[in-house]
Amino acid sequence: MVDTAPSPVKLPTPDSSDGFLVCGLGSLGQNCVANLKSFGVPVNAINDAMPSEWEVVDLRSQIDHLEIGDCRQAEVLERAGIRQCRAVLLVTQDERVNLEAALTARVLNPQVRLVMRSGKQNLNQLMGQQLQNFIAFEPTQLAAPAFALEAFGEELIGYFSLDGHRFQVVKQRLEPDNLWCDRRQLHELDTSHRRVLCHTPAALVRSTEALPRTTPSPSSLFYTWLPDTVLQAGDEVVVIESDAQLRTLHSEPARPVRQAPLAWARQTLKWLSDWRTLKQSLVDLWRSRSEHQLRRVALICGATVLALCLVGTLLFDFNSPADIPPFNAFLYTFVTLFGGYGDVFEALEEFDNPRGMQLFGVLLTVAGAAFVGVLYALLTEKLLTLRFEFMERRPPVPERDHVVVIWLGRVGRQVVTTMQELNQPVVGISPHALDAEVLPNIPLLTGDISAALDKAHLATAKSVVAVSDDEIQNLEVGLLAHRVNPHCRAIIRTYDQQFTDRVAQIFPFAQVLCASALSADAFAGAAFGEHVIGLFRLYRQTVLVTQYQIEAGDTLEALLLSEIAYGYGVVPLWHEHQAESGQLMPSEDIRLQVGDRLVVLATIGGLRRIEQGQLAPRSWKLHLDQARTAEARFDGAAKIARVSGYRLGEARDLMTRLPVTLPRPMYRHQAMRLARLLTRAQVTAQVVSPRPSSPVAPDRRPDQI
Hints:
CATH superfamily of the largest domain: NAD(P)-binding Rossmann-like Domain
CATH topology of the largest domain: Rossmann fold
Distance between the termini: 69 Å
Helix content: 25-40%
Largest sheet: 6 strands, parallel
């Protein structure tokens, strides 16, 4: 019999389909509950046992109803309120359990939205084709680009593809010789391939972690800056660029230069003449690891053969019946050493002390046989190594400015793939050998991790990404990388948000990312019916690349893109009207219609505002003084109608009653843009703040506003 966990007194589950059900309260499930509760919606949960640890503070009290049992059983889903749920998030660690529970939930509630955790791509696609209102994610795949971008450095923030177009989010600190400094205003950076996301003045770049708010915005990330701010040296600007504007953010690695034979010979002679260097090299070889044991044996055999050649030459010279040249004595030794004992046996009878010389000849023969065996072993090892290297065709390890990815599991391979797309030199390290067709175009080191790190040129590496399934091991590698190279970025994968917070606090040099916390935003957004294409981190917040399909009656219908951008605090990237080609960085003057497709950048707060229809209040107005010509009146009316949403007849009527203040309030960015357009059309216009006594003219410095 399944028991129900005791829960605090709650209001009864609503009869309307507004609730959400989370099956599985692991790290991902708990973060999903926390995100859903931020929307102010009822959230129920099912888990096979009471969680032993709560990662989110007071999360237990936020769950409206917690059912202990098997989420695959119909009666457990019934008690958890499946029939009153709008969406079910199936996020247990067992993909079979998630699939069975999804099918059971769909039978009990055919209208419920299913958001499933699954790493089987083919199955996910087939399920999506057969089931309506279904989507599946793999948390590691969602989070992998974030690990790659952290490894790339602070300059590249985000990277994703959309309908064949590539986007990248770039953070840039302006140098004094930058063409933008002291010349460009922020709004001038916006083009058909670029949008400004964030701006931090030079004085505040290092003094605060939060973005300064020079203007009110519903988002804490976007539109917190003024469009007419003049860029200065030291300012920090974050922009998103597409296609033609994409830039290479790293320097090409230096190619290894082959040495000429003469230079190599000189270097070898110099090395041999330096006794201290030679001695240290021999000691290092002797102390080498297990993979060099055969070479150690070869060194011993070689030294033994040289000693026997010297001793044999002296003995044959001293015991010869006649005075033979030293070279003949050496030939006796060499022939005996390499299997010619039968050729010299009879000649040894004439030597002084013949029995001793014959026994010495036997010793030389045995030593020679051992030396030849070791020589064959070395040649065989070298040939096999060359054969495997030829089959794999892997490039050499870069000398510097590369990224080292440790553990090439599902996440590691995706991180490497992202690095290759960005043309970033990368080295993979795996404790086990991989097939030749797996990531064939990257340098690969296998075996002991510590030994592989020595070969990976860690001292000159740009970043180290530790993404194994053991977060303690990841922390160990991150600390080791920092000890060897303090300038190396250490990216550590964790699975527990509390552990993540502690490690990040104690080791500020490390970039600690919890895959569950990163992915939970995408799962929560998908529960409301949105399609999350990708995500990235920006100023410690997760930004979701989210797609909307406009439907009748939703909170985006009939709004201008400017109203969506400034009212909800999101950044439109792509707009596509029915039966028309899509548009990159669409104009703010487009009004959405049913059937349109819109892709935006949004935080989880932005998704919540769109879901609940919480548009920020419009409080800025525009005052029109005069139009210099009749043509200016005509053009001004067209621009007012296009930007502010007036009908063309209303706009023309307003232009006949100058001076006039437009009665319909706007957002500050929207009003300042309209003022700039009217000024170019020879219509004098001023932005009026919420305090009517403070008119603001366009194209002025923010400290003058």
